Amino acid sequence: MGRLRSASPIGDVKGKVGPIVMSTWKAIAIVKTLPIKKRSTKQSEKQVQENTAFSTVMQFLWPVLKVINIGFQMPRNANMSPLNRATSYHMLHAVVGEPNTPNIDIAKIKFSRPIKSTQSAWNAALSAEEGRIIKVTWELNPYPVKCTQLNDRAVFILYDSELNWFQEVLSADLERAALIFTTVAPKRCAGHEWFVYMLMVSEDGKLVSETEYLGMVKVLA
Asked: Residue 15 and residue 201: Cα distance in Å, rounded?
């Protein structure tokens, strides 16, 4: 708020002029700005539904951010992050259910969207054995392309739907040439349904394959 203690340079003007208000108080000219009115724009039902879907997808993907950052490749000068790209993809292709209570279609989840790609595993097969063992086997592609290397890394994502819990496996020792992957589920997961996904990543991380959804198995105690 400004005060003019001498005659006003703008004469006898009083009241609102643009963004300011001029008045006098005890023979003192006073100039003050108008208060800023807060806009209270109510969101439309569609905006609420979109925000709900966005929040659902972000919360779902956040635990597997390491894989997302590897698998969702970005073009040069991209104005978004891999997580943003993954969220956008899943909102378009994997969100199902009622608009106000969205869910994720397990079979449509992707952990990779390659720009520079390598081949996926050949004939990958998922199985479960007693002792909470989860096993994946695959074969070498009989028609490999030049970019497909035996030292490509096999990446696995295992999801317990009952606990809403992910297990990422990004071991540098797990190569395409290994042809087998096994892991033991925690005791708390016995009897639960596990959904398993697989992708391949080149040793230098520059090439990734499309995500393979290998299916669901029940963890056997």
From this structure: 70
What is the domain count for the chain?
A: 2
The answer to whether position 39 is within a domain reads no
Predicted confidence band at 31 (pLDDT cuts at 50, 70, 90)? low
Alpha carbon distance 73, 27 (integer Å): 69
State whether 71 and 125 are in the same domain: yes
- pLDDT the model gives residue 191: 98
Q: What is the DSSP string of 50-118?
A: HHHHHHHHHHHHGGGHHHHHHHB---TT-SS-HHHHHHHHHHHHTEEEETTEEEE-GGG--S-B-SSB-
Give the pLDDT confidence of 116-142 residue by residue, as tens digits: 999 999 999 999 999 999 999 999 999
Task: Flag whether 6 is in a domain.
Answer: yes
Domain of 177 in residue numbering reads as: 45-218
**pTM of structure:** 0.80
- Cβ neighbours for 47, distance < 8 A, ≥ 6 positions apart: none
Contacts of 184 (CB under 8 A, 6+ apart): 131, 132, 133, 134
Per-residue pLDDT reduced to its tens digit, 154-172:
999 999 999 999 999 999 9
